[in-house]
Design a protein that fits this description.
alpha+beta; 11 strands; globular; binds glycine
């Protein structure tokens, strides 16, 4: 999960790591979390700068005595643990610099039922996540994001909040979410989805039901990927775009949806 997310963080197509949206001050601040469904252990970082792969830092937090470290403290923790640091300009792409210049000072917000994604983003650029089940049935989930464009300095969305943008419990299943953090937080979306899972309700039904709940309860759109403890896969989105891929035993190539 960590390695898959590192690839996506390094890919400028997504709002995570390189290619992230710039905040109101034109800086990149990153949030990430990883959760081990075997023991419910979590590691999360938020509003961190200069760390090339925030998911690797989140994993290091998971392996420590702590669960969640933010801002300057997260950068200090990265330095103490030898996590790769980079020049903050490494994250900034021409496309995002132009978006920031075009919309400088505007509040670019998500709370208009998907219109944000069509009008402002115009491309499948958002949070990244991965969920995996190993041969022993253990489920791990991870999520990483640059958050919202023009967000205030220090703003943290759903992605790194356990239960909101990520959850994994190997006795039920795990998932990762994308979409407007301010709305996803209100319904604790990913934990809500995991709580729906049962032998009768598989991962696909649960992601669809959780996204309906997000819409009906707070008018939000979003996306979810999931695996349940029976190995069933779910992926759905009510945003205009979300790319995803999965591979299972017996498949020679991943199944991709763009
Ligand atoms: N889902 C990403 C964010 O709102 O920060």
């Amino acid at each position: 999960v960590e390695k898959a997310i590192c690839v996506l963080e390094d890919d400028a197509a997504f709002d995570a790591g390189r290619g992230s949206f710039l905040n109101a001050e034109g800086r990149v601040q990153l949030d990430a979390a990883i959760m081990n469904g075997a023991d419910l252990n979590t590691g999360a970082v938020a509003a961190v700068e200069r760390v090339r792969n925030p998911i690797t830092l989140a994993r290091r937090v998971l392996e420590s005595d702590w669960a969640y470290i933010v801002g300057e403290g997260a950068l200090e923790f990265a330095r103490q643990n030898g996590i790769e640091e980079c020049n903050p300009w490494w994250f900034v792409t021409q496309e995002e610099m132009e978006r920031w210049s075009r919309h400088r000072g505007e509040v670019l917000y998500y709370l208009r039922d998907g219109a944000f994604y069509r009008d402002v983003l115009g491309s499948p650029s958002d949070t990244v996540g991965a969920v995996a089940m190993d041969s022993g049935g253990n489920i791990v989930a991870g999520t990483s994001t640059g958050g919202a464009p023009n967000k205030p300095v220090g703003r943290v969305g759903d992605s790194s909040l356990v239960g909101c943008g990520i959850y994994a419990d190997s006795t039920r299943g795990g998932g990762s979410a994308t979409g407007p953090g301010e709305l996803i937080i209100r319904v604790v979306l990913t934990k809500h989805m995991v709580d729906l899972l049962s032998e009768e309700v598989g991962a696909q039904q649960a992601v669809e039901a959780a996204l309906r709940h997000l819409k009906e309860r707070v008018g939000g759109c979003g996306g979810l990927i999931a695996i349940d403890r029976w190995g069933r896969i779910g992926r759905a989105h009510t945003t205009n775009l979300m790319s995803s891929a999965y591979i299972t035993e017996g498949l020679s190539e991943p199944v991709v949806e763009v």
